[in-house]
Design a protein that fits this description.
This protein is mainly beta. The protein has no helices and 11 strands. The chain is elongated, with a radius of gyration of 18 Å.
């Protein structure tokens, strides 16, 4: 799944030159992508600026196989693609869920459980995998 479809970045070199790069699809994990330089064949090195992880605001079980994840703000583009969360049950169970492609609407994305089902009445702690987001005390319970 593409993480940065149709995206371009502009890099400013230490010498003041602007260098444009366009995203090239690469099946990668985490919040990373490969960009090809478009306008400068002599480009050799740049320093990347730190981009803070997204922040989860809430999680809600739609049913025992589907979860609605809400970010604290609209990221403005499809940033859920390829993302995985782990749900750690108070009963010791662990479940993983992956973002459902194209389900993002504003700050909301739908995640599908991939390796089991959520248990009714169990409280789950939500943990984003590969540091793509933070989730301070985000829990969900299947009713």
């Amino acid at each position: 799944m593409e993480l940065f479809p149709g995206r371009k970045v502009e890099l400013k070199g230490d010498d003041g030159r602007n260098i444009e790069a366009q995203y090239r699809f690469s099946p990668c994990k985490g919040p990373y992508g490969i960009f090809d330089v478009l306008n400068d064949n002599t480009f050799k090195w740049f320093k990347a600026q730190y981009i803070a992880p997204l922040k989860l605001q809430s999680a809600e079980a739609i049913d025992n196989k589907t979860i609605k994840i809400v970010l604290d703000k609209d990221p403005g583009m499809e940033l859920f693609a390829g993302r995985i969360i782990q749900l750690q049950g108070e009963d010791g169970s662990t479940v993983q869920a992956q973002y459902r492609f194209s389900s993002c609407k504003g700050s909301v994305g739908i995640f599908d459980v991939t390796n089991n089902t959520l248990k009714t009445g169990v409280k789950y702690n939500v943990v984003p995998m590969n540091n793509w987001a933070t989730a301070d005390y985000i829990h969900l319970i299947v009713k």
